[in-house]
Amino acid sequence: MESSELARFEAVVLPHLDAAYTLARYLTRNEHDAEDVVQDACLRALKYFASFRGEEGTGARAWLLAIVRNTAFSARRRQRPDAGVLEFDEAQHSGAVADEHPEAALLRSAAKESLGRALDRLAPEFREVIVLRELEGLSYKEISDVAGVPVGTVMSRLSRARTRLQQALREEEGG
Amino acid sequence: MTHPGFEAQLDAYVDGELATVDARDLEAHLAQCPECARFRQERLELRAAIKARVPAFEAPAALRERVRAAVGAAAGARAPRRFAVRGVWRPLALAASLAVVAAGSWRLALQRAAGETLADDVLASHIRSLLPGHLTDVLSADQHTVKPWFNGRLDFSPPVYDFAARGYPLLGGRLDYVDGRSVAALVYGRRHHLINVFLWPAGRGPTAAPASETRQGYHLLHWATADYTYWVVSDLGLPELGDFAGLLRQADSATGAPK
Questions:
Q1: Residues A48-77: what's their mean pLDDT?
Q2: Triad B199, B233, B13: Cα angle to 5°
Q3: Where along chain B do its domains lie?
Q4: pTM attached to this predicted model
Q5: What residue in A sits closest to B49 (Cα-Cα)?
Q6: What's the sign of the alpha-carbon dihedral B81, B86, B88, B92?
Q7: Which of B222, B228, B231 is nearest to B176 (CA)?
Q8: Partners of residue B50 in chain A, C-beta under 8 Å
Q9: Between chains, do B11 and A158 touch, taking CB under 8 Å as contact?
Q10: Do B11 and A155 touch (CB under 8 A)?
């Protein structure tokens, strides 16, 4: 790679490192994993950069976030081969809550959980739409490109994730 | 109990993602369905809560260096253009910026001494409005509902526009208190951002050129027409906020700044 191309990569991609790290933090729920995912994603981005025809700014941000997202999900699959990949049954996750142990549910009703914790407990497919929308400010179309699902799915996931967060918020305020 | 069929649509509406035609239908429904109106208000409150309590992170400096080093090393070792991505990713076309006024030209003289405290006041009102339940007194995307609501509450009738078609839907209005007087506050949305527009009658005078400042990560724009003093506050990026302010000014001059 020529040095001017490297300079262009740095100018286009590195401004979005905070956004990349934020998404990785919420997807991995762990700062060390998040750093690894971001570094890995940047190397992948470099590999694909020659084919990236977008502009700097929003286009580059969504492009990088898509790579971060895919890197995080494949890291998760490696760690947890049973994690059900991306084919996940929306009906089964109607509460939009992942991995909840019955005891955890009891604890939750006793101790009020924070909004941040409620977000952490969402299934990753729901968590990511919230982060992409509320924290990264992506449009539905951009989210659909990043997550690789139709806009209609973005809409329904976002809506259900919000309903779940709202329940947490209400428990927090009322409980 | 909300109408289940409406929930995702209401979300899209709150996000400014609903097509204009659908938005009109939904507004008609919202006007006569208190449950759905409540649902929408709760979504706005959730958004404010997320904004206040779920942080975006900054990449640690060490990570930034690590990435730079790794990328530099990998770039040195690699011949250009070995891979091509297929199909799935199409680079997103950047929406052409409609900015009426470039961000730089907002940077005009501010009347310092008096301006400082006023800006503090306006910013405090903006932040207060983001707290749950404080955003709107009248919750409507219909300018013909919002405008009359101010009758009898203020001694002026503020101009209210809806820029939903331009991506800045009207969300509602409320009474606020700035610089020792009651003022109109209009709330507009832009994706996940909220924009507060504060306005009150100006002492009839020359129209002032817009000026901008940034405080605590919020952008404030203000200007005066022959009839009103305007302050616009948001965490939206300055170019877009400038675009929005341009729409307001345009609408005002088109209608001859109604009173």
A1: 83
A2: 95
A3: 1-85, 109-255
A4: 0.54
A5: A115
A6: positive
A7: B231
A8: 115, 130, 134-135, 165
A9: yes
A10: yes
Whether the CB-CB separation of A66 and A145 falls below 8 Å is answered with yes
Q: Under CATH, to which class is A88-175 assigned?
A: mainly alpha
Q: Which residues of chain A have a CB within 8 Å of the CB of B43?
A: 162, 166
Nearest CA in chain A to B193: A137
Interface residue of B36, B40, B71, B192 to substitute, partner A, most A CBs within 10 Å: B71
Among A12, A38, A67, smallest CA distance to B89 is for: A67
Asked whether the beta carbons of B231 and B218 are under 8 A apart, the reply is no
Q: Which residue has the tokens 């005002």?
A: B252
pLDDT digits (tens, 9 = 90+) for A65-123: 999 999 999 887 777 665 544 433 343 344 444 444 555 554 444 444 588 889 999 99
Q: Which residue of B has its CA nearest to A145?
A: B89
CATH architecture for residues B109-255: 3-Layer(aba) Sandwich (3.40)
CA distance A44 to B85: 11
Residue B87 and residue A61: Cα distance in Å, rounded? 19
Structural domain spans, chain A? 1-81, 88-175
- The domain defined by A1-81 carries CATH number 2.30.30.760: no
Q: How many CB pairs under 8 A join A and B?
A: 149
